[in-house]
Each structure stands twice: as structure tokens, then as C-alpha cells.
Amino acid sequence: MGRWRFMSYIENGVDPVEAECDQWPEDVLAELLTIVIYLRDTPADDWIRPDYAPLQGKLDPLGELRVITVEVGQAVHYRILGFMNDSALEFTMLAAGRKTRRFSYAEIGALALKRMANVKSHPQRYSHQAEWMTDE
Amino acid sequence: MNKRFNSPAFRKAFVAANVRRGIAYQLRAMRGTRTQGQIGELLSKPQNVVSRLEDPKYGKVTVQTLLDVAAAYDVALLVKFVSYGRLEAEVQDLSQEALVPLSWNAEVKVRSALERPFPMWVREQARSTSIESILPRGEIKQHGPIDLKIQLAAQPRVH
After folding, report:
1. Which of A83, B34, B50, B105 has the fewest CB neighbours in a 10 Å radius?
2. pLDDT, tens only, B119-129
3. pTM of the prediction?
4. Omega into A16 within 30° of 0, i.e. cis?
5. CATH assignment of A5-131, among 1.10.760.10, 3.30.2310.20, 3.40.50.2300, 3.40.50.1400
6. Residues of chain A whose pLDDT is less than 70?
7. How far away is chain A from the Cα of B34, in angstroms, using its nearest Cα?
């Protein structure tokens, strides 16, 4: 098996996933980096919980990278929604969010689906390699 | 190296996350197509213990448990402190082949095969191409491609 490449959404020179992740705590980013470096050498069938989960229903074929931490005694969920391109061995990160009581899949999911459509129609324009994540 | 490593807090968190995830992903790869229940029998532990060992969030595995697992799989175990540079090198290849170590019996097979060295041209080509492309299928079937790679790497350069 080849190695997965992690791509990120970009629009008008701004990477919204990177911008969101820059706001996250360092321990969350460390978890996220280890998830990415392990998944990049892992066959798609073995992308499983708790590090990754495919989304169902209207959000199919999206999936999410998942980091769960404990902050002030409570579990806090950080998610990055994206999609796999199996033939190119690419996972494109589309939208990131911190899951709280007000976290809405409908909102972030719709945003991710819209961005996925952009990437699929103009991959060169709307995606780039996520060097900020892995330094590759 | 990722620029975030300049932060001590990030480094500390990364080391912890990597140890947890490293154990979980390696045990998952070593299990292969077997069920957690089957591995539980091998370890003489219930299935839920295997499930916990494969959980990258768990993080409370003892060295004794790791020693028990190593003994059950008949592989060696290394627990050592290293530089960040060494850690970075270690995580460069986390493919299934890299995660699954040879058992003692497989190593013995490789060592005995070493008594019949491959010709020089095979060893030279093996450095730059895939093993499958230069050796007859029967040879690969007999030893397995991973064994052969190690065997070739272990052979001294003879001119």
C-alpha cells in the first residue's frame, strides 16, 4: 500500500482548517499529528474509531478525524471533516470544529459538502498539501 | 521536524500520544486477520483486555503487560529513552510491514536461509528495487517478502 497524502481546503489563499487548528490547544494538536502520521500508513479499511469515523446519511461520503480530550473534567471533542479519494490516496480536510453542546453537524456538514464539491470540480484551485500539519 | 516541536508542552503531549498510538496500532497490525478473542486466548486474557490494548486513548498499559504480549508473540520488546530526532526517524515508516516484527521462528528461518547467500546481482538490485520484481515467486512464497528483505539487508557486501 502507498502512503496517504493529507490535503487541506484552500480558498482565496486562506486555509480555514489550518486557521481553526491554530486556535486549538497544543495537546490536541499533538494528538492530531500522531493520528495523521499513523493513518497515512494505514489502509482505508483500518481507519476506525476512535481516531476516524465515516459520517452517515446526508453527510456520506464525508468522514472525520477525531480528537477527544478532557478539559475541566469534561470530554471535549475536536473534529476535522474531510473526504477520501481512494484512487489518489488523498484525504482532504475541509472543515474543523470543536464539538460542544452547540456543535451542529448540519452546519459544519453542509459547509464541508460545499467545499468538497469545490475541490472535486477544481482540485488545483481549492486544495493543497497540508504541509502545516506534517511538514511534508 | 514540525515547527510546533519548539514548544515543550507540544513535545510532551506528542510523546505521550505517540506511545499510546504506537502500542495500539502495532498491536492491531500484529493481530492481522485474527479476532481480539483469538489474541486474548494467546495472551490468556479476556477479549476486552485486547480491545483496551488496541485503544489509542487508553494509555495505562504496564511494562509487564507489554512483556507478556512480547512473550506471547515470541518477539523482542524495546523500551528506551531517545532523542526527538530518533523519534522522528521512527515514525517515518509506520506501514503494516514496519509494524509487524518477525517472531523468533521466522528469524530462525531467515538465519538458516542465510547459509545459502543470494548472488551479488540480486543483492545489488534489492537495494534499489522491490524484492518481488527480482526473485522467482517460489522463493518469495517460501520465505515471505519481509523475511527476504531482512535477509538481503543482513548479508555482508561481498565482491
Report:
1. B105
2. 666 666 655 55
3. 0.83
4. no
5. 3.30.2310.20
6. 101-103, 136
7. 14
